[in-house]
Design a protein that fits this description.
This is Tetratricopeptide repeat protein. InterPro entries: TPR-like_helical_dom_sf (IPR011990), TPR_rpt (IPR019734). Keywords: Membrane, Transmembrane, Transmembrane helix. There is one protein chain. The radius of gyration is 30 Å and the shape is elongated. It contains 17 helices and no strands. The N terminus is likely disordered. The chain folds into three domains: about 80 residues, Serine Threonine Protein Phosphatase 5, Tetratricopeptide repeat (Alpha Horseshoe); about 110 residues, Tetratricopeptide repeat domain (Serine Threonine Protein Phosphatase 5, Tetratricopeptide repeat), CATH 1.25.40.10; about 140 residues, Serine Threonine Protein Phosphatase 5, Tetratricopeptide repeat (Alpha Horseshoe). By secondary structure, the protein is mostly helical. Helix 11 packs antiparallel against helix 12.
Length: about 400
């Protein structure tokens, strides 16, 4: 199973070109080795083996191998900050996937770009990529990948406070039940709970969170979210000791599986301290959340944290500070929205250029279809004309015959 990068880790390993370890490996073996380094976030080894995979694939004229090589090179560059180069590799990979009709690879490509755009703040563009990836995974009958993207789409919808998040979460959970895929059930239940939480349906949210926690599954990037919202629900019920336990678990889990979840865990800790009246501890937790949210947050933004600061300062009756943070949150929102718009316009321009060939092919097909319909219509008109001529001729003959009979009579 391909494991798409979601966080950036230190590249602390070295690679010696021409290492015998990878000599004479088959294309399939090289793909598996790339996949291994991808899971370990070892970009140096990943890129080196992917380049070897490209050479081997070109020698054997293997489009699938070349597609996977470009995919691995693309995500390594994309998630290490080299956006343009990363996207170039990924579009090359998409071309290879289209040539060999490998919808599974195509779905991984769209999912990877969706994750990147979500991290970059282009939420609506990320949604487009996720939906395209979802369509390809469905076409490939790759239910595990379908579940991953569905969970990502559900999470994104929740971020956007879009009610379609509930539908995606429910679909993810139901498909997990139907196919007996535990992580789909877990992700679906968690995101359904979060959707209910935002609608202040706390009882339903807790039922879904408990349903997720009851599923015996390996820790994944959704785990910190489940634990953090369990903590917040316990805080609502004033069970502070239990709440802080779950919030601490969420933080420990986030540190292990995804840096982007750390601000959410700290926010849960701050929330628990706030409702206990321990405002200093709440502010310390928010300081940590803000520090991580600068570059890594997906599920919670600086705007959200500034609003939390405002709430804590209002609780401390420091209304001037509360007002300042509320104002900061508003400014952050305006700046982010502007960046999103410009980023989307730039990305749309790139997409239009990259997809131009596909569009031309589609246009040519449409013209051919249209021409075919015109020819059919012309033939139909000609047949109708001939038919009318025959009818007219028969009618005229019958008319003349009747006239002769009348004269004879």
């Amino acid at each position: 199973m391909l494991c798409t990068l979601t966080t950036i880790k230190a590249q602390n390993k070295t690679y010696i070109p021409g290492d015998k370890e990878f000599a004479n490996k088959s294309i399939h073996d090289l793909i598996e080795i790339c996949n291994k380094y991808n899971r370990e976030y070892d970009d140096l080894h990943l890129k080196a083996v992917a380049r070897r995979l490209i050479i081997a694939s070109k020698d054997q004229k293997n489009e699938t191998g070349e597609g996977y090589a470009n995919f691995f090179l693309g995500i390594a560059d994309l998630f290490s900050g080299n956006r343009e180069k990363g996207l170039r590799y990924l579009w090359k990979a998409k071309h290879c996937a289209d040539v060999v009709k490998n919808d599974t690879l195509a779905s991984h490509i769209f999912n990877a770009i969706g994750i990147y755009e979500n991290k970059a703040g282009s939420n609506y563009l990320a949604r487009w990529y996720y939906r395209e990836g979802l369509s390809r995974a469905r076409r490939a009958h790759c239910y595990e990948q379908f579940g991953i993207i569905l969970a990502n789409l559900s999470e994104l919808s929740i971020q956007l406070r879009d009610t379609s998040g509930i539908r995606f979460a429910e679909e993810c959970y139901q498909m997990g039940v139907k196919r007996n895929i535990k992580f789909m059930m877990y992700n679906g239940a968690t995101h359904k709970a979060v959707s209910e939480f935002f609608q202040k349906k706390y009882k339903s949210a807790e039922e879904w969170i408990d349903k997720a926690l009851a599923i015996n599954i390996k820790e994944n990037t959704t785990t910190p979210i489940t634990l953090a919202y369990k903590a917040e629900l316990l805080t609502k019920r004033k069970q502070f000791k239990e709440a802080i336990k779950y919030a601490d678990k969420a933080l420990a889990s986030a540190k292990r599986v995804s840096v982007s979840r750390i601000p959410l865990a700290f926010r849960s800790i701050a929330e628990t301290y706030f409702y206990q009246g321990e405002y200093t501890k709440a502010l310390t937790a928010l300081d940590s959340a803000y520090a991580y949210a600068k570059n890594n947050a997906i599920y919670i933004t600086k705007k959200d944290i500034n609003l939390e600061y405002a709430k804590v300062y209002a609780g401390m009756k420091n209304y001037q500070k509360a007002y300042e943070y509320e104002k900061l949150a508003h400014e952050e929102f305006m700046n982010t929205e502007y960046q999103k718009r410009t980023h989307i316009l730039e990305e749309c321009r790139i997409m239009l250029i990259m997809l131009q060939k596909d569009q031309q092919k589609m246009a040519q097909r449409a013209i051919k279809e249209q021409h075919k319909h015109i020819v059919i219509a012309e033939i139909a008109v000609a047949v109708m004309f001939v038919f009318l001529c025959i009818i007219s001729f028969i009618t005229f003959k019958l008319y003349k015959k009747n006239k002769k009979l009348e004269k004879a009579a």
